[in-house]
Input
Amino acid sequence: MGKDSVQVGLLGLGTVGTGVMQILQMNGKQISSRAGIDIVVKKILVRDKQKFRAVKVDPSLLTTEAAEILEDPEIDVVIELIGGLDVRWYVEEALKRGKFIITANKDLMATAGAALLRLARDNGRNIYYEASVGGGIPLIRPLKHSLGANKIVRIVGIINGTTNYILTRMDLAHLEFAEALREAQAKGFAEQDPSNDLEGRDAAYKLCILANLAFNSNLHCDSVYVEGISNLQQRDIIYARELGFTIKLLAIGEELPEGLALRVHPALVPLTHPLAGVLFENNALYVEGNAIGEVMFYGPGAGAMPTGSSVVADLIEVVRNINHQVENGIMEISFQDKNVVPPYELASAFYLRMQAKDQPGVFAGLANAFSEEMVSLDMIIQKRSSEGKAEIVLVTHAAKEKKFNAALAKIHKFAGIMAINSVYRVIPK
Amino acid sequence: MGKDSVQVGLLGLGTVGTGVMQILQMNGKQISSRAGIDIVVKKILVRDKQKFRAVKVDPSLLTTEAAEILEDPEIDVVIELIGGLDVRWYVEEALKRGKFIITANKDLMATAGAALLRLARDNGRNIYYEASVGGGIPLIRPLKHSLGANKIVRIVGIINGTTNYILTRMDLAHLEFAEALREAQAKGFAEQDPSNDLEGRDAAYKLCILANLAFNSNLHCDSVYVEGISNLQQRDIIYARELGFTIKLLAIGEELPEGLALRVHPALVPLTHPLAGVLFENNALYVEGNAIGEVMFYGPGAGAMPTGSSVVADLIEVVRNINHQVENGIMEISFQDKNVVPPYELASAFYLRMQAKDQPGVFAGLANAFSEEMVSLDMIIQKRSSEGKAEIVLVTHAAKEKKFNAALAKIHKFAGIMAINSVYRVIPK
Output
């Protein structure tokens, strides 16, 4: 094309936008050299031109008019860093006008990803969204390319930093949930209204994006089964560790013969599993492929610079392709409709904590209830009772959830069982 | 080009070659769909056509004549899976005849990588070598692409499965080195002559390949400083754990203002560091970039199917580029000559175990020796002495190696010090 630069428009100059500009300033020479051509940020859409910003930007680049970017034919790449669903129109408009899209927008890709990717293809363009999941960790690109020789069997992620920080502090510093949450808020790892993170909805959206890519599917993100961590007690984390586990909020996607199973829930993870070592606000994705076996990608799941690093990696790829006149659109997308397997049809081992009366026959009753449903027991802790009450902790071998639930329903009715305190799934090593 | 397939020649049908053929048979439809065109293995160079093989291959594909592959103009891609340095001529010949190279050959890429990459560029072709380091783990592609926005500051790898298996068993099962080695040999994780692995030379070659890519350098692989693990005693692993560490054979590459520092040696790793959770025969690479912070890639560092998965990922990339007529040669290579910083100029914290006479003044002497060299102490263990001997274990704060060594030389001369048993570096969290 004989260009001497590729021009870029930025929508938004918040946390991630600031990170992107800082990286372009800090590593610009290397970035242009890798892209093969200079990258020029021509315009940046902001709400308030006067606002103080943590990065130095030539004020003449700032605009409050989206049209100045969307309608500029010299701009080839639009980087959308505003977030939320309202920007969908901007993205559609940019694609229709032949621009490539880079986005860090999890909500948009989770709810409208398939439709937008189709629109991109129909316009001979593409959408790059590495930064929408896992912050700085390369996840989308490895799933697309490095693991391309594999049929992906299962993905298991720790993809919410807020909950992982809380769980790590509950485990290592023996904090109660409320204390750990307050600390996370004070350190900026949890928002003032943290419910999206705590209830697992943030992780469910990210899982949906990853699973649709890994399994080449077209699943609606509401079909992810979700349980959060706000009822988790430190006591269960202590028991888990005694049994050789830690507790993590996991996002699990599996392709089974009957269909896809996508779920987010707290689970016991063996201490020897690599996901057990993912601490504090870090994220990781564990992937099982039919050729590679098991690999894990670990790193910072959020933050201006890490997420900016993913945005700029996408930018280098787009610009290199534009510069080398590579066919840069989506070659094929064939997101297939696949069946969803409900959680009760899945098999898991289960952790169960309950209060029982310290009297003869209670344990026999428990054992019979499990035995009748063909659920076998793997580990049992019962410590010396006090005041006529005993606390019993069990871990079962793997069983279908509906079988385990049937046993649990029976146990609930026993006079000797005073309370069923906690039930968590256990992932196998 | 109007092709309806891309034809491939395979040099070698050993462990990895068998894995590649199995993956192509198992996932062939998906692989061709990702590449956008059918991939056909046209010829396979073997030594013995009659040999029994673990994979079914049409006997008419086998040949004992390299020329049938190298001189076939229909073959666009040559996959070199013989290994060793004798195949260099095949690779050069294939490049000169305009073929793309995919290789799993660590020795070749470590000793002749820069020259071969230059030859590839001069012929408008490229060499893909993801499988030469880290088996199935995506390392080369992330360093090239996903982290392209970063200046890489440091890489720290566990990139030898044999030694990691031995160290894991010494740590978790309290085996002595010799027992753990025998077990590794029985399980096929160590060769009958394991010295290349145990002495760190295998890891040094892999580090050299990764570092030259990460730091855009042109280092001779003999400039890697190497210490192995064959003198490591279980006693030190037990002390390390008591202090909150495990011991790993690490491959460390750093870019410092004075130049590059590349070294392979056993080191104490904090138990909260993600590398501490890399167990058994698994490998991992921890990367620090100036934008992303810290990321880690974890997985199987060897094996037919994992390594085959990396080879086929490279194959998909080459074939897709051929099919879409993408400029597929190396855009720029500018491996720069960089200064090498010798280990004694580097700073580390140190672990030190010694036997001392149980008499007054010994510890004061130690403390003074360190103090005179400005090395400060972080942790000390001295347990009850027996038979007039005390075992002292120290961990220092970070100090330049030459300062630490100067203190050590003084300590050696003390009458009260009977033996200095072990000295290991400690990596910071």
User: Anything to note?
Assistant: Chain A touches chain B through 60 residues (CB under 8 Å). Residues 266 and 375 of chain A are 21 Å apart (CA to CA). The radius of gyration of chain A is 25 Å. The domain at 5-136+304-323 of chain A is CATH 3.40.50.720 (Rossmann fold).
